[in-house]
Amino acid sequence: QVQLVESGGGLVQAGGSLRLSCAASGSIFGIVAMGWYRQAPGKQRTLVAAITSAVNYAGSVKGRFTISRDNAKNTVYLQMDSLKPEDTAVYYCHIRGGWTTLVDYWGQGTQVTVSS
Terminus of the chain with fewer CB atoms < 10 Å: N or C? Predict the structure, then answer.
């Protein structure tokens, strides 16, 4: 069973930066999407950034966050700059892949807290 292991969350002051990493514990073939979602307390989980055939960002993070991937390592990164208190949430990485059937893999979540 492939697991996604996240790292890089923490506490940072507004205006600071963090870099999240998400590595798959095994090989995932036929990856069609890699991305990051976040969930703030009392709110639904929403897309932050994703790489499919294109790169997409939520409007609230465009210009501040950058998603990237290392195909050889089945790893996806999220560089977060100019962080704001409203970016505070649990961040989850997501990979969708498979050969005959697409499977959604999720990380365990990593807390990002931005203080004002």
Answer: N
What pLDDT sits at residue 112? 98
Instruction: At 52, list the tokens.
Output: 């499919």
CB 4 within 8 A of CB 106: yes
72 pLDDT band (50/70/90 cuts)?
confident
At residue 28 the predicted structure's pLDDT band, cuts being 50, 70 and 90, is confident
Could you give the CA distance from residue 49 to residue 91 in angstroms, rounded to a whole number?
Answer: 11
H helix and E strand count, the chain: 0, 11
Position 61 pLDDT exceeds 90: yes
Cα–chain center distance at 45: 12
Phi, psi of 81 (to 5 degrees): -115, 165
Let me know: does 29 contact 98? Beta carbons within 8 Å.
yes
- Phi first, then psi, for residue 101 (nearest 5°) are -135, 130
Which two three-digit tokens encode residue 100? 């005959």
Q: Tell me how far apart the alpha carbons of residues 13 and 108 are, in angstroms, rounded to a whole number.
A: 24
